[in-house]
């Protein structure tokens, strides 16, 4: 027989208008004037991570690309040893030869190994990331000849990219472009060149991205992708090239010597530093959607949906009772 306390708790959980946990129905974001609610999240404060090998939300990648597959004069050698975390208060420089910012370091080396440039990639462990709002707080290297990227990926014809080509930066005329790309079947047919498909934007930032950390954001909704820097809309791409499936998030730093894109290799080792990633999204998995239906008792109840604050230091995952079965 249930005791009185258990019976009371069960009764309370069944009452309309009462939530069992904060944010149980999701997290809301203002997407160009429209409020969207997302059910799940991935949040990682890399400045608090002591050893990236022990982080279960992210997986370091290890693979090689030949020069042919990399579409450059050099190939790429993605290796876990080119990824390191430097946590706040640490005396470690990580992969840097000088004092380093706290965060996740992704290294591109200046030397080559058997015709391959040593590079870095780390992927989200979850591959069911569907429509959502994805944010990365990054500091881009000031060394010419690399591509620093934050992107969402399903396959080569369903991909959403934010890419920095450091060879394009010029302090003399305050030119700091960011490349916003949708890879689709059209770009595949053009040899993975999206620039002539109408799904490519090059926007000059109003700041030097190598001097400090800035938040770069992708909002992926049905039929539309919007890109931001520090909360300001940079541009949007609509239409049939917008992906339709679930995928995963990727942080990548690479070079293959292609003069039409990454350039390089860099003349000295270059490090992309990522302070944090926050992703709020709907899952593409039936089981995860069923979990949401089970826990979301009343989406109109106070606290059932939590607004995502425009505050880089805030993480739902460090708060009590705000991410139950949502990570």
Automatic annotation (TrEMBL):
Keyword Signal: yes
One Pfam family linked to the record: Glyco_hydro_16
Domain GH16: 50-285
One Gene Ontology molecular-function label: hydrolase activity, hydrolyzing O-glycosyl compounds
Alphabetic keyword roster: Signal
Keyword Signal applies: yes
Highest taxon in the source lineage: Eukaryota
GO biological processes: carbohydrate metabolic process
SUPFAM superfamilies in the cross-refs: Concanavalin A-like lectins/glucanases
Record's signal peptide: 1-21
Protein name, entry field: Beta-glucanase
Species per Swiss-Prot/TrEMBL record: Colletotrichum shisoi
